[in-house]
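Ex. 9. Protein: Soluble lytic murein transglycosylase.
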Amino acid sequence: MVDLTGVHRVISRIEEIKARFNVNVEKSFGEILENAISEYETKLNKAKDNVQEADIPEKKAKEIIERTARALGVDADLALAVAKVESNFKQNAVSSKGAVGIMQLMPTTAASLGVNPYDVEENVLGGVFYLKKLLERYDGDVVKALAAYNAGPFNVEKYGGIPPFRETQEYVEKVMKYYMSMKEK
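Predicted structure tokens for Soluble lytic murein transglycosylase:
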């Protein structure tokens, strides 16, 4: 026979805590998750409403990117090249897939990074930090990191490099071209 006294003590303790905090309604994991997502979306929409619709000047965007890249130890020229191709340094850019801002962060990626994609500074911080993590993941392989930035790490690993997606192939080519032209200056 299995001894369940430990389980019963845990359940009892949970009931005590629920009573203490007046938690009377049992919620399923799905309900809790839906509430959390709803709260996040509400917070994000409030932040979005508070963001100015006008873009910041390109010069200011570049300064933010360069400063953030230096702080995170990422090649500023690479971060600038990503921003150039992603949004042409436009904070109010939104892709057809829902990517937002200068670094074109997907809302789920922004949430996982704990940044507000509608805030210029946070958008850049999130994008440059994500780029840094991808560079680390691929041992400094810029091409793989760029492919993952565009198509996701799963696809890069699945195909062992740049996935056979036209969009990703063109994206990597554009970023590398811009990056190399900046290195020649």
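Check your answer against this statement. The CA atoms of residues 86 and 104 lie 6 Å apart.
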